[in-house]
Design a protein that fits this description.
By secondary structure, the protein is of the alpha+beta class. It has a domain of 127 residues: 2-Layer Sandwich (Heat Shock Protein 90), CATH 3.30.565. A five-stranded antiparallel sheet has the order 1-2-3-5-4, with helices on one face. α2 packs antiparallel against α3, α3 runs antiparallel to α6 and α5 runs antiparallel to α6. The radius of gyration is 17 Å and the shape is globular.
Length: 187
């Protein structure tokens, strides 16, 4: 049997511990943001850190909602019976920082482009991130989903950290994309 007392002990006092698995909607995003914002106001005195956590969380959740696998082939379950429209979200903290972790299914055909985009962002300095962000904004080029590719750049800018990610193959059509951002409590 699952030992919830042990899980409770592992969750530190004065930390944000939120975990969700299921279908991500814009209504859910609003609820998660309200819960985390309320908790942040109780725990974090530094307004700048609170704003960065809020901004990164908002962007991560919007990216997740916008990028849940929606192709025709995803209407069926994977070979291993995973629900492709399901995602996971985790928000936690420790003495050093806040951690936002998301996971969702992606088509294997999209992995190389996503890796290339993330690795390209990870190579940029803070100044180069700012310049790229402003350049994309000034070009006003938007994708079919309404974005301009700013989400990952904005996350990297606000967190000041490299984007951490991993892909785990599920079957010949889909993989599970795990994404983590750390926001330091030390500014």
């Amino acid at each position: 049997m699952l030992n919830f007392l042990e899980i409770h002990k592992q969750m530190r006092m004065n930390s944000i511990a939120l975990f969700f698995k299921g279908c991500v909607t814009f209504e859910l995003i609003d609820s998660i943001i309200m819960i985390v914002s309320s908790r942040l106001e109780q725990l974090e005195n530094n307004l700048g850190v609170r704003k960065r956590v809020y901004g990164v969380l908002t962007e991560c959740l919007q990216n997740l909602c916008n990028n849940i696998e929606s192709s025709e082939e995803s209407k069926e379950m994977t070979e291993l019976n995973y629900d492709l429209h399901s995602a996971v979200i985790m928000v936690d903290s420790n003495d050093e920082g806040y951690f936002i972790k998301t996971g969702n299914f992606v088509s294997n055909s999209k992995i190389e482009d996503l890796k290339k985009s993330i690795e390209g962002i990870n190579l940029l300095s803070k100044e180069e991130l700012r310049e790229k962000y402003n350049k994309i904004l000034s070009n006003k080029i938007f994708s079919e989903k309404g974005g301009a590719g700013l989400g990952l750049i904005d996350i990297a800018k606000k967190s000041g950290k490299k984007l951490e990610y991993d892909f785990e193959t599920v079957d010949n059509k889909f993989s599970f994309f795990s994404f983590q951002i750390t926001i330091s409590k030390n500014g």
